[in-house]
Specification:
The protein is an alpha+beta fold and 165 residues long. The protein is built from four helices and five strands; from the N terminus they run αβββββααα.
């Protein structure tokens, strides 16, 4: 599948090779917006169960997505540093998608799996939100270049599996 076909979709899955470009931000800037840009990204999951030798097995998928139609930027005040900052928001979503995947692989689910997965998902989303907010505050929304570099190293390290989130 070519890159242009992927970018035309409503949601773009995270990939190590796929880096965001300003043309991917297709949403309208909201009236009164104070931010330079907004990256709409998140995590989705699906699962199914089956039985093998009387034991319930779980087949699942967890993925981070970027949502072009809900992402926007103001070209007059954005630059490459802003774009890097927005890319890291998407990368952080991937870090937490991997965390959810890992936790699902380590969890012994019961017959209440639907509820148990929902609780796990909601907890991961809360942790993701706290992490994203901390990232924005500590980097001053990309304006603190030294903190931005520090976060970039931290997120790249997490994506390489060099430490846990």
């Amino acid at each position: 599948m070519s890159c242009s076909l992927i970018r035309a979709q409503e949601e773009v899955p995270w990939s190590p090779q796929g880096k965001l470009e300003w043309k991917d931000f297709k949403g309208d800037v909201p009236l009164g917006a104070k931010a330079a840009a907004t990256t709409a990204s998140g995590i989705s999951y699906s699962f199914s169960t089956f039985y093998e030798k009387g034991e319930m097995k779980v087949d699942y998928q967890v993925q981070a997505f970027f949502y072009p139609a809900k992402s926007w930027y103001r070209p007059q005040i954005c630059n490459d540093i802003t774009l890097l900052h927005e890319q890291l928001h998407f990368d952080i979503s991937e870090v937490f998608a991997r965390k959810m995947h890992r936790e699902m692989s380590e969890t012994k689910f019961t017959k209440n799996i639907k509820q148990e997965v929902r609780v796990l998902y909601k907890r991961i989303l809360k942790e993701l939100d706290v992490f994203q907010r901390r990232y924005d505050l500590e980097t001053d929304f990309s304006r603190n270049i030294e903190k931005q570099k520090l976060w970039q190293r931290q997120i790249n390290s997490l994506l390489k599996g060099e430490s846990s989130s």
